[in-house]
Amino acid sequence: EIASIAGNDGLEITPAQLFRHPTLSSLAVALKLSSKTARASTRESSTQVTVDNANTGIPGNCSAPDNIPVTASNLKRIARSNPPPTLHTPPSATSTALCDNTQSLHHTCSARISSIGVYLPPGEVTTEELIQDCNPWHMFPLENVTGIESRRMVDGTEFSSDLACKAVRECLANSPYTAEQIDMIVCCNITRSSARLEISMEPNTSMQVKRECGLTHALAFDVSNACAGMFTGMLVVDSFLTAGNIRRGLVVSGEYTSGIIGTAQQEITEYLDLRLASLTVGDAGAAVLLESSGKTGAGFHELDMYTLGKYSRMCIGQITDGPHGGAIIMRPDPIEHTAIAVRHSAANLKYLFDTYDRAPESIDHLIMHQTSAVSLLDGSRAINKCFGKEISTARNTINNLAHRGNTASTSHMVAVWDHIQNGRIKSGDKTVFSITGSGQTIGTATYTFDDLPDRLRSITKTGKKPEKHMAEHTMQTAAHRNFARVQISATGLFPDNQTRPDDTVETAACAARTCLAKSAYEPCDIDLLIFAGVTRTNHVFEPAIASMVAEKLNINDSIDSETDRKTLAFDVFNGAMSFMNGCHIASEMIYAGKFRTAMVVASEVETNKLHFPDRLLGLAETGGAVILD
Fold it and tell me: Taking a C-beta distance cutoff of 8 angstroms, is the pair 290, 237 a contact?
């Protein structure tokens, strides 16, 4: 915010300088401002970075006291008179003419969390220890900015599926159901490591967990949507529940994220390095068992999610180019990435409360994606600004970062688990989940707890697990469905007369364009976009490839208002079955009334071509797409 205000006045200040020089005096010296320039920069003007000397006692020159911080609050009056510019370009006239800009479908949700399980590795590593192992290190105040003192990390014997399996076993142990009584398992982890420096493509995580945990009757597939993955999985399971296709389903994630820490420690070279986010992560597994909430009043009420593909490349997780190997997270512009997520998530929360006429003052807990203390503070400020009053407070906003770090897609559920165990979350409490994930996926979920907190605390206190339901009581036939069928409206393949690019996204987008050209739909008519390919260029595992395809095709990739038409984009991952899983998921979500139209797109590329040209898979590199309605 400060850098933006200064930039509007022609004064070049970077976020890195503000971290290094947090007082007006030290910043002025660092910028080598003359007294004349300094006085000019503090002159009374609605378009300049100014400081009211009468209110702050700061003289208009470089001799300002060292203890006067450079903060947005010191520039509050100026910020109020200069609202930040809009982040989005308005839709074109053609787009407006072709699309109904009113999104009439709302993502109501009728599932409840029947049980939850979290697994945290026993090993704990401090931020200070991580910093000491960086080569070289430039003294960025990581712990102060992020609020992360330590995080749990595996010891080299546990990886993605191990973390997921242990969370599933805990979840089932806390529930009245057996593994054989689970109808569906959806794994949503970003990371797919089966060993250090190894990525497991097939079998996927859900198939491994199904085998290891005895989920013999469960339909299994992975959903990938960066840190919004678990909520995307919950939306999928809720659709199957609503459509009467299943009775209960597990949503699981095993995040072995600490693998990227070692890569970052070898590669960080600058004060605000693009790889700094890799040092904030922690390992965790989480699993939630969902079933219909019935008419109890407990459970989810709304679960609204959409994807702004325009910003899909603002955070990329992939394998490194370095000879040491490993995965890495890159954020070309972390400041803007956070600003976009904060602004839209706050607006979506306000929109949802206005739409469903809920009282925001009734919130007992607000749980945002746990990334850093600074981003949580920004989120609170943005929410309060949207509502015009204090909705997010220190009392109701949960900060779970200190000893967990950013546990990626599991962060919300780890926070729920921790604060049920410490007694903060109580039975009957009303909770709002603010959802953000690279891609950029935005969302809000409203939830009322039943007696789950009391049940879990009782299990922890007494060690007594719930008795299991008899199989004949629970495994009844699913309800008969009498809905209109879902059809394939159009198909498209990568054109034979075109040179195939060595790129997953472009190959998929080209097939999607061919499909759209043969249909009655424009890109903005697509409500749901699913990518179902197995291979991906450079092993990109964050964000969802679907979000990048949405950006290529301008499928509602940015919005001006929460009432604009929106699209949710995510990936389905299940080997050669992925495409049919994608069609199945899209059909159930249309049956459930979540969406009207869906596109399922896939492409396959020689994923080893860049780094391991001697280990090609022998794939036909091509793409295909269908539109369902």
Answer: yes
Lookup: tokens for 106: 């709302």
**Are 558 and 442 spatial neighbours (Cβ–Cβ below 8 Å)?**
no
Q: What is the dihedral of CA 411, 413, 419, 424, to 10 degrees?
A: 120
Helices 504-517 & 545-553 angle (0-180, nearest 10): 50
In this predicted structure, what is the pLDDT of residue 358?
A: 82
> What Cα–Cα distance (Å) separates residue 433 from each residue in 254, 308, 382?
20, 19, 15
Q: Are 568 and 577 in contact (CB under 8 A)?
A: no
Residue 276's pLDDT is what?
86
Spatial separation of the C-alpha atoms in residues 350 and 338, rounded to whole Å: 18
CA–CA gap between residue 47 and residue 6 (Å, rounded) = 9
Residue-level pLDDT at 478: 53
Locus of tokens 């100026």: 78
Residue 200 and residue 162 in contact, taking contact as beta carbons nearer than 8 Å = no
Strand order of the β-sheet with 365-368 is 299-307, 441-448, 430-437, 365-368
**Any idea which residue has 């993502």 for tokens?**
107
Residue with tokens 């300049």: 48
Phi, psi angle pair for 334, to nearest 5°: -65, -30
- At which residue do the structure tokens 């370009």 appear? 89
Distances (CA, A) of 409 to 232, 269, 285, 366: 10, 28, 9, 17
Q: Which residues contact 210 (CB under 8 A, 6 or more apart)?
A: 185, 216, 218, 220
Our measurement of the distance from residue 590's CA atom to the centroid of its chain's CA atoms, rounded to an integer in Å, reads: 23
For the four alpha carbons of 606, 609, 612 and 613, in that order, the dihedral sign comes to positive
Rg (CA), the chain: 25
Torsion of the alpha carbons at 562, 563, 564 and 565, rounded to the nearest 10: 110
Tokens in use for 352? 């949802």
Decide if 237 contacts 288 (C-beta within 8 A).
Answer: no
- Contact at 8 Å (CB) between 623 and 511? yes
Question: 497 by DSSP, 3-state: which?
Answer: coil
Any residues with CB less than 8 A from the CB of 154 and at least 6 apart, and which? 121, 123, 162, 163, 256, 258, 283
Size of the chain, expressed as the number of residues it contains = 629
Dihedral class, residue 410 (left if φ above 0, else alpha if ψ from -120 to 50, else beta): alpha
Name residues whose C-beta falls within 8 Å of residue 204's C-beta, 6 or more positions apart in sequence: 187, 192, 221, 222, 573, 574, 575
If we measure between CA atoms, which residue out of 277, 272, 281 comes closest to residue 315?
A: 277
**Hey, what are 598's tokens?**
């869906």
Predicted TM-score of the model (pTM): 0.85
Three-class SS string for 451-468? CHHHHHHHHHHHCCCCCC
Q: Which residues of the chain carry a pLDDT beneath 50? A: 34-39, 41-65, 72, 75-99, 101-102, 104, 473-475, 477
Q: Residues 404-428, buried b or exposed e (16+ Cβ, 10 A)?
A: bbbbbbbbbbbbbbbbbeeeebeee
Looking at residue 82, its pLDDT comes to 43
Q: Are 296 and 311 in contact (CB under 8 A)?
A: no
Would you state the structure tokens that stand for residue 220, as one six-digit string? 């299994």
Token match 């391991």: residue?
A: 612
- pLDDT at res. 120: 97
- Asked whether the beta carbons of 345 and 442 are under 8 A apart, the reply is yes
**What confidence score (pLDDT) does residue 68 get?**
61
Phi and psi dihedrals of 36, rounded to 5?
A: -65, -45
Q: pLDDT digits over 347-392, tens only?
A: 999 999 998 888 898 899 999 999 999 899 999 999 999 999 999 9
Cis omega (within 30 of 0) for bond into 203:
yes
